[in-house]
Fold these 3 entries.
Entry 1:
Amino acid sequence: MSSSLQGKNVVLCITGGIAAYKAADLTSRLRKLGAQVYIIMTESATHFITPLTLEVLSEHRVVTDMFDRTFTWEVEHISLAKRADVFVIAPATANIIGKAAHGIADDMVSTTLMATKAPMVIAPAMNTNMYENPIVQQNIALLKARGVSFVEPASGRLACGDTGKGKLADPADIAHAIEAAATPHDLEGLSVLVTAGPTREAMDPVRFISNHSTGKMGYAIAQRAQMRGAKVTLVSGPVALDAPANVSVISITSAMEMHDAVMEQLPLQDWVIKAAAVGDYRPETQADDKLKKKADEMSVALVKNPDILKEIGMQKRDDQTVCGFSMETRDLIENSRAKLEGKNCDMLVANNLKTAGAGFAHDTNVATLLYRDGSSEPLSLMQKDSLADIVLDRMLALHRKKG
């Protein structure tokens, strides 16, 4: 999987609290995403998890002391501050949030924090009453106003026995926020509608007609667009995927439901990327009860579903940009070119199901991008999130041409 953190330097600061042990999981996740992780711990944090554990996971020396006598000509807090591509505090206590808000620099974490110009992500963890204290909330609001990103704590049973908001967010969510902070926000201000997954057309309460789409391509596009700063709405058929973070998801089942959701959203969007595999036909009638086996053969009358992409193409404004997808098993370019032109798309992503590594269920894809001017752009095998970024890059170029 490609990541915005590949080759980036993350300075992870760990402050004192029971949630400090989760920093091990977060460090592992960041390493898997390709980041170099440099860790600073407050003295109190070392009581909850050892520096040695984090040194093994990060493969770098953990810094704990302002006056460490380990020989180096570098001024440690300045060196780490300059090295950081993203600066993270997780878990963050009320104490460090207060220091950050008011410029107090009296330990290794707070002095490095004062010296960095890197994007900052803070994940608070504390007792509910502490988190809800007006002073803490004012400090958080002050830091947010200065551009600091916060990963909201979760609600649940806390270590002290209380129940409420204050648990450290899931390390996966924190890692996502860090990745987003490392991603250029070149789609800031754009509203993007993405469709993904299959549709299901019911025959009876038990059976339905569908396809093999897993939604992976559309979900990758939605996630990458969100990370790049867009306001993303995802209309999704039934899939076994977690909802992308910070994306508005509209869940549907049938093609008619997808049609209605998309057409309602269309006037609000700058871009539409239609990656869903929508059923072309549905049963003319749906039985109220399960159909029983009565004969060797059974016929089901089918009626055509609305052509959502064609309707989008007919209704789109001049300032809207539309990307369609096609899945073929032969005559890929010819059939896809006809779809691009017939449905008034600005670009189209063409896939051949018979190509190794392409199509449904894979984490990879092989695609050819087609454009209105008659040009095409064949792409080699790559991860779907890498293809997602290329699609978004090309959409951005088309959008800018429209002025």
Entry 2:
Amino acid sequence: MTITSLSGLGIVALFLLLMLLFAFTGQKKSRLPLRPIPAFKRLWRTIGLAVEDGTRLHLSVGRGAVNAPESASAFVGLRMVQRIMRTVSISDRHPIVTSGDGALNILSRDTLQASYKAMGQAGQYRPSAGRLTGPTPFSFASGVMSVIADEEVSANVLIGHFGPEVALILEAGDRKNNLTLAGSDHLPGQAVLYAAAQEPLIGEEVYAGGAYLQAGNAHTASLQAQDVLRWLVILVILGGAVLHFLGLGNLIPIG
């Protein structure tokens, strides 16, 4: 194996060890405060208003295939669905979860059903609450637009794999004066969200949703591990710059 491959494996192993460390230590002491992200604060307020007004939340986990790299953001979205369900369970109108992949739709329905069972409301679950709106980018967006227009939705939470077609979804939300919190792992989708979404989540903020919604100790541990690795990367970059400045760049192994 090359040095690059070994370095990659080392980083993954270090990240897992840090996650385990912070997960165990976090159970024994109070958690450190998280960096404020206004989008999540506004989301909590909107969820409360939706419950009071009797309107519905729409959550979408995108169209990423579960056997592909983009599934990571979709799983974050599913975890957020599970957490939000604890809060809106008393609402007259339960959330709708949309997706653009068949397997992801099955997972969405399973997440909803498990959430209702955990709250002792198994009879409230309806399979139609998890919807496959379309298998292609624009058919998916078209189906989501119909949900926003016809289901008395007051807020949209879009966390998953979205491309430029997300602009159509944002437009549908704006027409209904809905709050839209959205994040994507796809760069073209992020560009659209940054320009058009009311509350865009950029970069790693997409994967921080579980921690900010208090979905579990593992999510907070993951953020802390990311912070440690970020500082390590910064130190490595600065160290490399210093070595090159001193004419010792040949000491850095490459390959």
Entry 3:
Amino acid sequence: MDKTFVRVYSLFILFFVGIGLLMIYKAPPSHKTDRAEQGTAHTLGEVSQSPLENPMIPIPAGEFIMGAEDGGMDEQPQRNVYLDAFAIQKYEVMQHEYNAFVEGTGHRKPLNRYVKNIEYFNHVNQPAIYVSWLDAYDYCAWRGFRLPTEAEWEKAARGTEGLSWPWREKFEASFANFKGDSDQGVFTMVAGSYKKDESPYGIYDMSGNVREWVQDWYNDQYYLSAPIKNPLGPQTGEEKVLRGSSWRDSLYAGRASGRLKMTPGYRYEGVGFRCAQTVNVDMEER
């Protein structure tokens, strides 16, 4: 057989095999989502690479509505709870913040080479993930802060009016970083990307992005006997409380009153945290 013909034929076969592989190949997921296209979120390419500041936002003393009569059994009964003034971080603790803790103390790194799609989680302003309750506790203590109580977290998320969601409008899946039906390959987003996911106090991502550790031990019957002033949760337990929802969770999970339990050593790509602190100022809710 003519050598020239063989070469041309071989190139012809390789060309069509290559086309077939390209059609089969699925590119890595992008941070750009349907929601970003709707203008409710920013993509990584649109945000600054400079580390964001994460200030403490003061929450005045006063009553708020905690729990939900139409929620899970562990969210009942709904009741009015009084909290002293406190402050809580505007954003979930970010990668650059947690990395400073790791470098300064030699603490375990949350992300490592075994994490799937690690390149989609390590932007400096994305939330720190794969952190256990113990990791979160140690970080906040290192900063001179603490984890928020379950009651503090809920008040910061819903305000005093008992909102089911941090925003005041009708619920839309595009308002926060949830796992929606139209999302493909959605991961955590840069802090504050979803402008609708802002609480009445100006705190971001309390409904979506990542679930958040709080101080309390979990008990599904705790609300039945909990104090109505500055509840601190059960004195002992086996599991800690997680609040909020994440990019891995359904829309319903993001309600401000929703509760989840996990062991203190649990680490996951949809779990992070934020810190709080006691405020020694007599601020009253207006």
